[in-house]
Design a protein that fits this description.
By secondary structure, the chain is mainly alpha-helical. The chain is built from twelve helices and no strands. The longest helix is centred in the last third of the chain and has 34 residues.
């Protein structure tokens, strides 16, 4: 093979392909239709040239240069198109809903532990009133007294913003802890945290029921609670998923079992954090505002529950294939 003649004959095309690649680095849309066709044609010729050089030449720098050029052109032609921000957001939301559906039994178990503990503590305190001091921590007495008053203090915009910031920093941290401890504790700590949070809600509901203000409690926490409690339940399902992977690895090593569920666990944990962020401004600016009537809070909660149920059950589903006529 006459390398000098080969390079002299084909070098112009390689230079032109390099120039087109430089122009297309920012996206194929920067090329005209004619330039795009030229890029495809020159890419195919350069691929042939690379095959010839590898077969008939021992010039390592020439082969490496052609290989880089062909690889660069291939990457430009076959890379995935850039998604818009909205498209990426929709894809992330679909992934979240699909992951929750795929792990529905862990989600349902998490919800059962949370709400089961709330009902259990509510019933236990009704049956054994003296157990109240063992269930309600002394540090929460002031909070419970505030709820029993059935009133909220008026908050300015700046105060509500500060509250939203607090909720947005504290609640996601609770979600992360609830989900992340599942692997190291075989899911036990996740179960405990779910039970404990549900128990506090059950105890508060019991105390509000005693003073005839259970409806006030539900309508006040429901607008943000639909989202926030979904977050803690999804976080709990992450902890249960990781714990189950450690307890029941099957024929795999535990590390491999954790790796297999790792993607779903990360998506569930991230979903719970996002839910907490969504709930924070609702809690700060709407749920606890005395100027907002309770019926409106209840209406918003019902709408929110419906929207989330539709999202979890339907969003991101692939359309059913049409039946084939026979």
């Amino acid at each position: 093979m006459n390398e000098q003649s080969f390079v002299s004959k084909r070098g112009t095309d390689w230079d032109r392909l390099t120039a087109l690649c430089n122009k297309a680095d920012g996206g194929l849309r920067k090329l005209s239709s004619g330039e795009l066709l030229e890029l495809v044609r020159l890419y195919r010729r350069a691929s042939t040239d690379l095959a010839v050089a590898r077969t008939k030449s021992t010039n390592v720098p020439l082969i490496a240069s052609l290989n880089d050029l062909v690889g660069r052109a291939y990457g430009i032609l076959y890379r995935s198109p850039k998604q818009s921000f909205w498209g990426g957001l929709m894809k992330a939301a679909a992934t979240s809903a699909q992951t929750v559906r795929r792990n529905k039994w862990f989600v349902l178990t998490s919800a059962t532990i949370f709400f089961g503990s709330a009902f259990f503590i509510f019933g236990l305190m009704s049956w054994m009133p003296g157990i109240k001091d063992q269930i309600i921590p002394p540090a929460m007495d002031k909070l419970f007294d505030s709820w029993r008053s059935g009133k909220f203090e008026e908050h300015s915009g700046s105060e509500s913003s500060m509250m939203a910031g607090f909720y947005a920093s504290n609640n996601p941290r609770t979600s992360i802890i609830t989900g992340a401890v599942g692997a190291g504790s075989f899911g036990v700590v996740s179960v405990y945290l779910l039970f404990n949070n549900g128990a506090i809600l059950g105890a508060l509901a019991h105390e509000m029921n005693k003073v005839g203000k259970l409806g006030f409690l539900i309508s006040s926490i429901a607008p943000h609670g639909v989202t926030e409690l979904s977050g803690i339940i999804v976080a709990g399902s992450c902890g249960l998923l990781l714990g189950y992977a450690v307890i029941n690895p099957g024929r795999r090593r535990r590390s491999d079992s954790l790796r297999a569920v790792g993607r779903d666990a990360v998506v569930l944990l991230a979903t719970s954090v996002v839910l907490m962020f969504i709930a924070a401004p609702i809690e700060a600016f709407f749920s606890f505002q005395p100027a907002v009537p309770q019926w409106l809070k209840a209406a918003v909660a019902i709408i929110g529950l419906f929207v989330w149920m539709v999202f979890w059950t339907s969003f991101g589903r692939e359309p059913e294939p049409l039946p084939v006529a026979r």
